[in-house]
Amino acid sequence: MTRDELLKFHGTLCGEAKDLMSLKNRDYAGKEGIEPFANFTRVEAMGICKTEAGFMVRLTDKMSRLSSFLQSGKMNVKDESFADTCVDVINYMVLLAAYIKDKEDQIKIIESSNIKQKPF
């Protein structure tokens, strides 16, 4: 595979990941999409673990599937391929990065409003 072929493959795979996220996230965030991280934040709301740890659990599950495939050479769940699992990992990483960015942005907004409210 050449670099150009690699980059084309990357674009295709990431396009598939984005399309899948768009569909699946509707199930978790609702039609309006106001809570795209709802299924992850729910673990913290239920007192199970921190939201970030919830992301890592799901990623670890997917990485375990990939590791098992690499050891055995086969996927036991016939309707989910190696590539499907790779797409899931891509989406979990995008979701985690977006969640962290959103959390940092919210902190900046709070800090900014606190600075504005301080008397001189």
Give the arrangement of secondary structure elements.
Blueprint: H1 3-29, H2 38-45, H3 51-72, H4 82-117
Helix pairs in contact: 1-4, 2-3, 3-4
Description:
There is one protein chain. With 120 residues, the chain is an all-alpha fold. The protein has one domain (3-95). The protein is built from four helices and no strands. The protein has helices at residues 3-29, 38-45, 51-72, 82-117.
Keywords, separated by commas or semicolons:
single chain, 120 residues, mainly alpha, 78% helix
Q: How many E strands? A: 0
Biggest sheet, open or closed, and with what strands and sense?
none
Q: How far apart are the termini?
A: 63 Å
Q: Overall pLDDT, averaged?
A: 91
Based on secondary structure, the structural category is mainly alpha
- Number of helical elements: 4
> How many structural domains in the coordinates?
1
Give the uncertain stretches in residue-range form: none
Radius of gyration: 18 Å
SSE string: HHHH
Shape: globular
Strand content: under 5%
Q: What level of helicity do the residues show?
A: over 70%
